[in-house]
Structures are given as C-alpha cells and as structure tokens.
C-alpha cells in the first residue's frame, strides 16, 4: 500500500490497530480487512561462524587455550572496529570449546 498524500510506502503501526502510517505522518486504515503482522528479525547474541557441523573445515592454529592449556584452536577474523585498524582474531579451543579473542 502507498500513501495517498506523498506516494511513499506505508508501514503497519506497532499497535497493529488496523492502520498503516507513512513517514510523512499520514495514517490510513487497512483496505479490504487485510491482516497485518509485524515480525522482528531474530538476532543471535554471538555472531560466530564456528558451528559443530563445520568445525572440521575451519582453519586451526597453534595457540594455548587460556582455560585448559590445549595447544590447538580454530580461528577466524572479523573487522570489529574502523577499517584503518587491524582485524580481531576470534579463537575456539579444539578440546574444551572455550572462546576468546586476540586484538
């Protein structure tokens, strides 16, 4: 549905009261008794690509685990700060599954 005033896309209100609102502030009733549902995106607390099914394909390095002392860990890189700063290395112990990071 589009706004009758400005022609922009209409969005359902949070209250789902049978109305849709436009960014310009115009509020219009839903036509034809259509049901509106709002779904929020599911986000994981930790965005970690190391999953049990693919751990065997992840690269490994020789680094001691701070928890158990095992000398082998899976690793991956993520850009967690500005692009002019180095990446953060995320590590997961192959033995105990402990996760930590190196800057």
UniProtKB/TrEMBL annotation:
Q: Which UniProt keywords apply?
A: Metal-binding, Transcription, Zinc, Zinc-finger
Q: In terms of domain of life, where is this protein from?
A: Archaea
- The organism encoding this protein is Methanomassiliicoccus intestinalis (strain Issoire-Mx1)
GO molecular function: any one? zinc ion binding
One of the GO BP terms on file: regulation of DNA-templated transcription
Residues in TFIIS-type domain copies = 61-101
- Zinc finger spans (C4-type) are 3-24
Positions contributing to Zn(2+) 1 binding:
3, 6, 22, 24
Q: Which NCBIfam families match?
A: TFS_arch
- What family name appears in the similarity comment? Belongs to the archaeal rpoM/eukaryotic RPA12/RPB9/RPC11 RNA polymerase family.
Question: Could you say which residues bind Zn(2+) 2 here?
Answer: 65, 68, 93, 96
**Keyword Metal-binding attached:** yes
Annotated PANTHER family: DNA-DIRECTED RNA POLYMERASE, DNA-DIRECTED RNA POLYMERASE III SUBUNIT RPC10
Q: Which InterPro entries match?
A: DNA-dir_RNA_pol-M_15_CS, Rpa12/Rpb9/Rpc10/TFS, TFS, Znf_TFIIS
Protein name, as recorded: Transcription factor S
């Amino acid at each position: 549905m589009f706004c009758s005033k400005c022609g922009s896309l209409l969005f359902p209100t949070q209250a789902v009261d049978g109305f849709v609102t436009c960014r310009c502030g115009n509020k219009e009733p839903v036509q034809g008794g259509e049901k509106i549902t709002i779904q929020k995106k599911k986000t994981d607390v930790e965005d970690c690509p190391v999953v049990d099914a693919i751990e065997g394909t992840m690269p490994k390095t020789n680094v001691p685990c701070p928890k158990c002392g095992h000398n082998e860990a899976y690793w991956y890189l993520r850009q967690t700060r500005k692009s002019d700063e180095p990446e953060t290395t995320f590590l997961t112990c192959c033995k105990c599954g402990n996760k930590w990071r190196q800057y």
